[in-house]
């Protein structure tokens, strides 16, 4: 599928299925009185905060508030890559999917703002923005154009740079081969920091660091731990350059078939799990940083000149991007508390 244009369904069977699903607003006699069964899929490992604190508990939490919904979750890319899962979501083959702003920006470019370096001050600011008025019309574009509804935004973590030498200011990144995801906005964020971005697939990052193909990478601390990057890098530089988010998506046709009670139950549980993921992610980061600081697993570089990095990135993204106006609006907003 070309994510830069509206998705198409080429299979006659798929088209017929979607048509029937769109027209039918009730369950068949065979399923009457039974819970609505939904399929959810994402690419995150079972040990990740996204699953461990979130989607692993979705079915149980739903059963505690309603007998009308039953969700089966397929984590760790069991049903395909992020791009493939999005395609299945649009086609109606999956009901719920988790994706990030950079992938969704292939459909609607302004959404990439959430993955632009220093768009958000911290995770709280990111959540306020993602759930607020600035982003609402852009999430609505996904619903209007692709029948994809955003139920909520969850925190994925504050991203920091790892390296074999301390990184304290943008000058330290000159000529530094920084591995980032291949999506355009990620590569641009690396450039905005002053690095030489390298697109290397996630599964190959460990080997690339071990063999010196890349000088460093950047990820939330729990991900660095889970992937073993701390084993092949000496320094954790607390840049906090991107406050990563993920979006919980549902097929709009499925949403419209649900009763108001089912919709309310799903929204309630998704939002509550999002708060659990947020707390678990923050707690895991703080715990790991203190452990590594004490046992010397990594040198914790916490005297990073964040203001210098932020100034460089904001100048970089202030013009020339589809989301520049939105970026400027977000970065100039006053601090406020996260939404409950």
Listing every helix as H and every strand as E from the N terminus to the C terminus, the arrangement reads: HEHHEHEHHHEEHEHEHEHHEHH
Give the C-alpha Rg.
21 Å
Mean pLDDT reading: 91
For this structure, what is the CATH homologous superfamily?
Bacterial extracellular solute-binding protein, family 7
Total tally of structural domains: 1
Structural class by SSE content: alpha/beta
End-to-end C-alpha gap: 37 Å
* Parts with pLDDT < 50 across at least 5 consecutive residues: 1-30
Total helical segments: 14
**Percentage of residues in helical conformation:** 40-55%
CATH level-two architecture: 3-Layer(aba) Sandwich
Proportion of residues in β-strands: 15-25%
Shape: globular
* Topology, number of strands: 9
What would the CATH topology be?
A: D-Maltodextrin-Binding Protein, domain 2
CATH C-level? Alpha Beta
Q: In this structure, how is the largest beta sheet organized?
A: 9 strands, mixed
Task: Describe what you observe in this structure.
The chain is an alpha/beta fold. The protein has a single domain (33-331), classed as D-Maltodextrin-Binding Protein, domain 2. The chain is built from 14 helices and 9 strands. It has helices at 12-23, 49-54, 58-65, 82-91, 101-104, 123-130, 136-146, 184-193, 205-210, 221-227, 252-257, 260-295, 306-317, 324-331; strands spanning 36-41, 69-74, 96-99, 148-163, 177-180, 196-199, 216-220, 235-251, 299-301. Strands 1, 2, 3, 4, 5, 6, 7, 8 and 9 form a 9-stranded mixed beta sheet that branches. Strand 5 (177-180), helix 8 (184-193) and strand 6 form a beta-alpha-beta unit. Helix 3 packs across helix 12 (260-295). The radius of gyration is 21 Å and the shape is globular. The model is unreliable at 1-30 (pLDDT under 50).
């Amino acid at each position: 599928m070309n994510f830069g244009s509206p998705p198409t369904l080429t299979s006659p069977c798929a088209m017929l299925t979607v048509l029937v699903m769109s027209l039918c607003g009730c369950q068949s006699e065979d399923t009457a009185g039974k819970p609505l069964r939904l399929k959810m899929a994402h690419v995150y490992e079972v040990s990740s905060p996204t699953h461990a604190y979130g989607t692993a508990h979705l079915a149980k939490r739903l059963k505690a508030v309603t007998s009308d919904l039953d969700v089966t979750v397929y984590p760790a890319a069991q049903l395909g890559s992020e791009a493939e899962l999005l395609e299945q979501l649009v086609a109606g083959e999956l009901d719920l999917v988790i994706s990030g702003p950079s992938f969704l920006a292939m459909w609607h470019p302004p959404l990439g703002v959430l993955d632009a370096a220093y768009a958000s001050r911290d995770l709280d600011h990111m959540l306020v923005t993602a759930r607020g008025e600035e982003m609402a019309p852009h999430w609505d574009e996904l619903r209007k154009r692709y029948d994809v509804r955003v139920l909520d935004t969850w925190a994925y973590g504050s991203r920091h740079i790892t390296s074999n030498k301390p990184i304290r200011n943008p000058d330290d990144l000159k000529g530094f081969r920084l591995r980032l995801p291949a999506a355009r906005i990620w590569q641009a964020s690396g450039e905005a920091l002053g690095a030489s971005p390298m697109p290397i697939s996630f599964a190959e990052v460990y080997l690339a660091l071990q063999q010196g193909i890349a000088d460093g990478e950047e990820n939330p601390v729990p991900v660095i731990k889970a992937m073993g990057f701390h084993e092949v890098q000496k320094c954790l530089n607390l840049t906090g350059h991107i406050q990563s988010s993920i979006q919980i998506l549902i097929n709009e046709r499925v949403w419209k078939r649900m009763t108001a009670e089912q919709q309310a139950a799903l929204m309630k549980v998704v939002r509550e799990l999002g708060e659990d993921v947020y707390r678990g992610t923050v707690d895991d980061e703080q715990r790991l940083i203190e452990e590594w600081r004490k046992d010397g697993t990594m040198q914790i570089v916490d005297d990073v000149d964040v203001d210098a990095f932020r100034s460089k990135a904001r100048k970089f993204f202030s013009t020339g991007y589809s989301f520049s106006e939105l970026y400027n609006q977000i970065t100039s907003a006053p601090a406020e508390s996260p939404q409950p």
